[in-house]
Structures are given as C-alpha cells and as structure tokens.
Amino acid sequence: MKEIHVRISDDIYNYIKDYSYVNKITFSKSINYILNKVININNKDNQIANISQIVQYIKENSFITKELLEQLYSDLDFENYTDKEKCKMLKQFYNNLNIRRISK
To answer: What digits encode the pLDDT tens for the residues 2-14?
Structure first.
C-alpha cells in the first residue's frame, strides 16, 4: 500500500471525516472505499457506453439486413412484383407477424 500526501478541500475533508465516524472506520479506509466506488462507477459508465455502441451497430446492421431480405423477396418475383412496397405477400407476412406479436 502506498502512503501519499494529498491536499483536499475542507468540504471533502469534513465529508470523509463524517463518513469515517458513521461507519466506524479509519479516515484512510474511508478514502480507499470512496475512491474504489468512484472508479467502479467510471468503469461501469465506460461499459455502458461500449454496450450502447454495440447495440447501435447491431440495430444499423439489422435494418440493412431487413431491407436486403425484403428486396430479395420482391426480386424473386413470386407475384410479378419487383417493388417491395407493392408486394402483397410481403405485406401479408408483416401483417401475420404483427398479429403473432400482439397475441403473445
């Protein structure tokens, strides 16, 4: 363990002193505990940011995949419709999908 000397404001000193008294631990243990909490919060914030980026990436790729599949379905020309907006079977598929989601 390192022994260091640090200058802190009176407000922070009083907070740590009160925290030490209430929890019946030494001043040094209080500082260690508080610093560990702050570091853990910082790490969790970074993890949340990384997860958020991954979710955004997945969302964008899912949208692209959906668009490609719709276009592929309409290009297969099951009903002589190459425009996915006019494809009856694709609309029916989405209607059935929505009905299943509502009934669950």
So the answer is: 888 889 999 999 9
Residues 6 or more apart whose CB falls under 8 angstroms from that of 75 comprise 82
CA 69/CA 18 separation, integer angstroms: 63
Q: Measure the CA–CA gap between 88 and 80, rounded to whole angstroms.
A: 10
What is the distance between the alpha carbons of residues 71 and 74, in angstroms, rounded to a whole number? 5
Q: What's the pLDDT tens digit per position in 60-81? A: 888 878 877 877 776 776 666 5
Q: How many Å apart are CA 34 and CA 40, to the nearest integer?
A: 10
- 38 vs 14, 16, 31, 32, 45, CA distance in Å? 18, 14, 11, 10, 11
